[in-house]
Specification:
Layout (H helix, E strand, L loop, with lengths): L2 E6 L5 H13 L5 E5 L15 E4 L6 H13 L4 E5 L2 H12 L5 H21 L3 E17 L2 E11 L11 E5 L4 E7 L10 E2 L2 H13 L1
Length: 211
């Protein structure tokens, strides 16, 4: 089953793109379930078709995400859209910041919760499309003997290396164009940027079915 991530800043079209991908993969709106953490944004596209929606409200704990995925599976969804998984990481960062004691030791308590969530995503019998918000990323570089921050593009708001967990990661810009930053299918890697359509979903489904 496809495990795909869409990452981009606010307004890049992640939700709409995820729905078009999902419909291309199933061609039945009733077989699509959206776990919406973005204040009802999934309902903005209700005119597309009768897909199912779970409105996830705070706290955005990994355990609540896992429960929501289980509900979608039980509802016999073929494609689950998690829009987005950034709040899960922000929740864990917040928990970690407020824990007493050693920061390093406390990560040992946080990491298993994040791992359980990602394992649920990866082991789900459904196709999963996860969206991730991005933020400006910086590195420190030396100029005139001083360490100064330098912009190095956008970084997903999620655990470092989470992109390794997905089969495809597509980056969306504010013009709604997508480019692959990771692609084990070789459908999109090294190709020019493109606008995601239902046809993109059909291509992905075809690749899945070859296996």
């Amino acid at each position: 089953k496809m495990k795909l991530a869409l990452q981009g800043s606010s307004g890049s079209g992640k939700s709409m793109s995820a729905l078009l991908l999902a419909h291309g993969m199933t061609e039945d709106w009733t077989k699509i379930a959206v776990i919406d953490t973005e204040n009802g944004s999934a309902s903005l596209y209700a005119h597309l078709g009768p897909y199912q929606v779970i409105h996830l409200t705070p706290p955005f704990s990994p355990e609540r995400y896992i429960e929501a995925i289980k509900i979608c599976e039980e509802a016999q969804a073929e494609v689950i859209i998690i829009d987005s998984i950034s709040q899960c990481w922000e929740f864990l960062i917040d928990i970690h910041a407020n824990m007493p004691g050693s920061s390093f030791t406390n990560w040992a308590k946080i990491t298993p919760r994040q791992s359980a969530f990602m394992n649920k995503v990866l082991q789900s019998p459904c196709h999963i499309i996860a969206t991730m918000r991005t933020k400006q990323d910086y590195v420190l570089s030396e100029k005139n003997g001083k360490q100064v921050p330098e912009k190095v593009g956008l970084k997903a708001i999620q655990r470092d290396g989470v992109d390794y967990e997905f089969t495809i990661v597509l980056d969306l810009d504010l013009s709604h164009y997508a480019v692959a930053s990771k692609d084990r299918t070789n459908l999109f890697m090294g190709k020019p940027s493109f606008v995601i359509t239902e046809e993109t979903g059909k291509q992905i489904l075809e690749w899945c079915n070859q296996g």
